[in-house]
Specification:
Length: 153
């Protein structure tokens, strides 16, 4: 399992290939690998120029590691990867990546969805939308994101 909270961009192709190679080298009998990449989208009003993402180093990695460990156990995953960026990101940039490896596709897909729902709703990140006028607004949690977590209870 690898968790990375980083300011730098990541190469989706390289990270995917590395994950596949690590799973193969481990000798795990994984028949399915699922990857998901999230990108920064613009605001509904269209005036967002960037998203500023803050976190507490150490605490954020531990929190994500705990939920990834839960996913590993719950779906008997061979491996999992979570990359999440912080800092100033512009619309269209990659913000995060999740990869899961499991014996069967259903486990890999479900675990990836579980991790994405957690990252969206519970991971300790604070996001601020920066607008063209120089002002910023903190992004509040959405009810729909909270509702998505209830399927994992």
């Amino acid at each position: 399992m690898r968790i990375s909270v980083q300011g730098d961009q990541f190469d989706l192709g390289e990270e995917s290939q590395r994950f596949v190679a690590e799973v193969a080298a481990s000798g795990a009998n994984a028949g399915a690998i699922v990857t998901f990449t999230g990108v920064v989208r613009g605001s509904d009003s269209g005036d967002m120029v960037a998203m500023e993402i803050e976190h507490y180093p150490g605490m954020t990695e531990r929190a994500i590691g705990q939920i990834a460990e839960t996913a590993l156990q719950r779906w008997s995953l061979a491996d999992a990867l979570v990359i999440h960026r912080h800092g100033r990101l512009i619309p269209g940039e990659q913000i995060m990546m999740v990869a899961t490896a499991a014996r069967h596709r259903s486990g890999a897909f479900e675990a990836a969805s579980y991790l994405m729902d957690y990252l969206k709703s519970r991971a300790p990140f604070w996001k601020k939308e920066l607008r063209q006028d120089g002002e910023g607004a903190w992004v509040e949690a959405k009810g729909s994101d909270e509702d998505a977590l209830t399927r994992w209870d």
